[in-house]
Amino acid sequence: MKTTTPTHIHKIFKKTHDPIWQLQFGVVAIMVLQYFTNSSFLPYDKHIIIGFEAIVLFALAIVTSDGYHRVSKTRRLLAMALVTIVAAINIFSLIFLVQALLFGDTSSIDRHDLLLNGMTIYITNIFMFALLYWEMDGGGPDRRVGNERERDFIFPQMIHKGIAKPDWLPGFTDYLYLSTTNVTNFASADTVPISHRAKLLMMIQALVSVVAVVLVAARTIGILQ
After folding, report:
1. Rounded distance, CA 6 to CA 11, Å?
2. Which of 12-16, 100-104, 129-133, 214-218 has the lowest mean pLDDT?
3. What domain range includes position 181?
4. Prediction pTM value
5. Structural domain count of the chain
6. 137-158 pLDDT, tens per residue?
């Protein structure tokens, strides 16, 4: 029988582990933005929202402490719950902000709050979809390790030989870069969406970015003049 040595275990861990701190950084960035968001643009008390997100993030870190070399339904459930919470809050924030701009009394709206909340929605949109792409592509990071499902995105490292190791796998930073380029260029810079759901999500993200940047920014500039 073939035995697994500690050295072999370390190699597996090093090869398949997508550093959890990168994901944590993304969520913490969202939580900081939510903390500075005006309460009138949030669906619930900001301290409760941030506290609940922190609990889910902590639980996700615990179940992912040994990397992604095995499929974990608990990890995926927690990750999707975190993405859903962030997405719902950001959607409500965008709705409240657009409602205030289009139907509210703009003279009573603080100019700095408009700029800050517009920026918050825009940046949260980046991190939120990065989390979603990271969890969606190929069934999640643990399934990507085993190549158990077809991929949703094709990265240049997968098709150009010599620029990365043969066993290269995308990490959270790669999906963050994909999300950032999609909201700034309204198209990915070097990564190709190949599944229908990936293309649909990138379209939705671009549309949210258009609303946050074009409508909110234009209306805010009008108020500032």
Report:
1. 9
2. 12-16
3. 19-224
4. 0.81
5. 1
6. 988 887 777 766 688 999 988 8
